[in-house]
Amino acid sequence: MSRYHPVVIGSLHVPGNLFLAPVAGYTDRAFRALCVEQGADFTCTELISAEALIRNRVKAEPLMRRSDTEDPYGIQLFGADPEVMYQAAALLAPYHPEAVDINCGCPVPKVVKTGAGSALMRQPSLLGRIVEAVVRASRDYLQSVPVTVKMRSGWDSASINYHTCARIAVEAGAALVSLHARTRAQGYAGKSDWLHIRDLASRLAVPVAGSGDLFSPEDAEAMLRETGCAGVLFARGALGNPFIFGTTRSLLLTGSYTPPDAAERLHTGLRHLQLLAQDWGEKTACLEMRKHFCAYTKGMPGGAPLRNKLVHAETIEEYRALCREAEDLMPYG
Ligand SMILES: Cc1cc2nc3c(=O)[nH]c(=O)nc-3n(C[C@H](O)[C@H](O)[C@H](O)COP(=O)(O)O)c2cc1C
User: Fold this and answer.
1) Distance between CA 243 and CA 35 in Å, rounded?
2) Pocket of ligand 1 (CB under 6 A)
3) Average pLDDT, 10 consecutive residues per value, the chain (333 residues)
4) Whole-structure pTM over 0.70, yes or no?
5) Tell me, which fold does domain 7-254 have in CATH?
């Protein structure tokens, strides 16, 4: 079987195994739309606070809306109280997500001090009750869409417990487990230990999606081959590089791929800006786009001077003019 293949997540049949990971502050619906265009098979919102959602659904709305092209997509919730998670999941009904994901990996102090995110891995039985509650909400309000869980390897190197946590999550009804194979203590430093992904994929009855250090199509091919995981989650490797889905698919299916050239990267960056402007208005979109454009132009000839100018651009027209100017200076042929 090709390494590019469908993944069955409970009742959900996903046509391929290249997923966009949630990345807070980056994977909003404008970016997710571009990733789908470029071949992402499954996308998910960034983490959304269950407490905040219950307090003010309207405020959380922009984070939860799907783009026109996303199908299937998931919404990720975080929280530490099963009842609150049940109520929050119930409120997702108007968005018709194809899956609900539970965040058990976020290392950020603001989240872990509430007992949520990766702190849930220190309380596996609570994690189990949370999964149960969200599965119940899915049955009651969301037509039983699958509930999935995204976790780390453990809290720190002395408490690697992904297997216990994943087993409990699956017993409570989780239909897929994503594993970012770093500990909470590691944050985003060091290496993701893919042996953990291999171990989990060989032991769980449900599909495992692997995460950590996927920066190229070759990385994804290696993770699928070395770990036997069902799917891969692109995170930092997709930022400014939504093309990674198409190039990886091509590598897996044909053994080769053509990387996008500088002009294509700039044009896609400008489309990204337009999509952001549709959601947030031109001013906010231009500000937001600065960080993205830095990623789009990384490693590009003439990228550094272009970035220096782009971080001052305040209108779409200014972005366009700077990109045109950069293109004119590019060596072709
Ligand atoms: C800035 C940033 C924000 C993130 N936000 C989320 C999030 O909202 N939910 C989540 O489950 N993981 C989140 N992650 C973790 C990623 O989904 C992924 O598991 C991690 O970055 C490892 O993959 P990588 O090494 O390929 O980037 C975030 C990571 C980064 C760098």
Assistant:
1) 7
2) 21-25, 46-47, 76, 103, 105-106, 150, 180, 188, 192, 211-214, 235-237
3) 94 98 97 97 98 94 94 98 98 97 98 98 98 98 98 97 98 98 96 98 98 98 98 98 98 97 94 96 95 90 88 94 86 51
4) yes
5) TIM Barrel (3.20.20)
